[in-house]
Write a structure and sequence with these properties.
The structure is a single chain. By secondary structure, the chain is mainly α. Helices cover 49% and strands 7% of the residues. It has helices at 29-43, 52-63, 70-85, 90-102, 111-128, 132-137, 140-153, 161-169, 176-197, 255-258, 262-273, 280-284, 300-303, and strands at residues 17-18, 25-26, 155-156, 206-207, 216-217, 223-226, 235-238, 249-250. The strands form four sheets. A two-stranded antiparallel ribbon has the order 1-2. It has a two-stranded antiparallel ribbon with strand order 3-4. A two-stranded parallel sheet has the order 5-8.
């Protein structure tokens, strides 16, 4: 039997509220009310299994693996927000200009992704294309920019109860033998989960956070993003003592990627976030040989592990 930490957060399912149409669960009545007033009324499928959005979602999930599958849901919510509010958020226009001026090519523009993006865009136009504002968002150029926005600034929302459980296990007062035994059992449990649902991810959604998105990257971050309340609320937590006036920096890379070579880190950041990293770690390693992840003996999957 696996141990149960005393400080595990409790969730009361009785507080959940379900949309009467599509049966999507919300955390409370107020949460449902807010969603309907902001976007949900425009995108609710009303429980129809043949609704075009349901079919498009199934098609997208057959192409992509988590957490990329969340991008479609996020885009649909943005479209719903535009339809309900009757306006396009100003931040989108500012971001489109940033992408145009960057001069770099985001990975979504690579040939292997273009056909998929065109399919997704065409499907969304068929569903929402009668709205003039949606037509503006879904021009090919703007749609690509929107995808890039989510890819570059989107924050994975880690609200997994299982992830919370694993983090709290690390804090249990165990002997070395108990810890080794627990680690071995948890590794086997992860393997079982992988067999059932594919590569396990603790990311259950994607969001755009105005302040968090302003945090720059460093390969030696001094803060990290934490979802301590097991919901959408995000906290920025210090990893070490921070001096007054020191810039707060998170890492856009996984733990595995942070341990890779300077060349591999900078290559990934340029492809995914459109900049060449010049953080203190990269500057200190600038005379290192340009060793790629393959030459280091790491597969792409290992480079992108989380």
């Amino acid at each position: 039997m696996l141990p149960l930490p005393d400080d595990m957060p409790s969730v009361d399912p009785s507080s959940f509220e379900f949309c009467p149409g599509c049966k999507v669960a919300f955390c409370s009545k107020q949460c449902l009310k807010n969603a309907v007033g902001q976007y949900h009324s425009a995108v609710c499928t009303n429980g129809d299994p043949n609704h075009p959005l349901v079919k498009l979602d199934e098609l997208w999930r057959n192409i992509h693996y988590p957490p990329e599958t969340t991008s479609l849901v996020f885009i649909v919510k943005i479209i719903g927000l535009v339809i309900v509010s009757g306006k396009i958020p100003e931040i989108f226009g500012e971001f489109y200009q940033t992408v145009e001026k960057s001069g770099n090519t985001h990975k979504v523009l690579q040939p292997e992704f273009i056909a998929q993006l065109d399919m997704l865009r065409d499907g969304l136009l068929q569903i929402f294309g009668e709205n003039s504002l949606v037509q503006q968002i879904l021009t090919r150029e703007n749609f690509i920019s929107l995808i890039a926005l989510i890819g570059m600034n989107g924050q994975g929302i880690g609200t997994s109860s299982f992830a919370d459980y694993c983090k709290r296990l690390d804090n249990l007062p165990l002997t070395k033998d108990e810890k080794d035994n627990l680690d071995n059992r948890m590794e086997k449990l992860y393997d079982k989960i992988d067999e059932e649902v594919g590569i396990f991810t603790n990311v259950e959604g994607t969001g755009l956070y105005e302040l968090q998105s302003k945090l720059n990257h460093s390969c030696q971050p001094n803060v990290q993003i934490v979802f301590g309340s097991s919901n959408h609320e995000l906290s920025v937590v210090a990893l070490r003592d921070i001096q007054q006036g020191e810039e707060l920096c998170i890492s856009y890379l996984s733990c595995c990627q942070l341990d890779s070579s300077r060349h591999s880190r900078r290559k990934f950041l340029l492809q995914n976030y459109l900049f060449e990293c010049e953080c203190m770690k990269c500057e200190a390693q600038k005379n290192d040989p340009d060793v790629t992840s393959d030459e280091e003996g790491d597969s792409e999957e290992e480079m992108e592990c989380s």
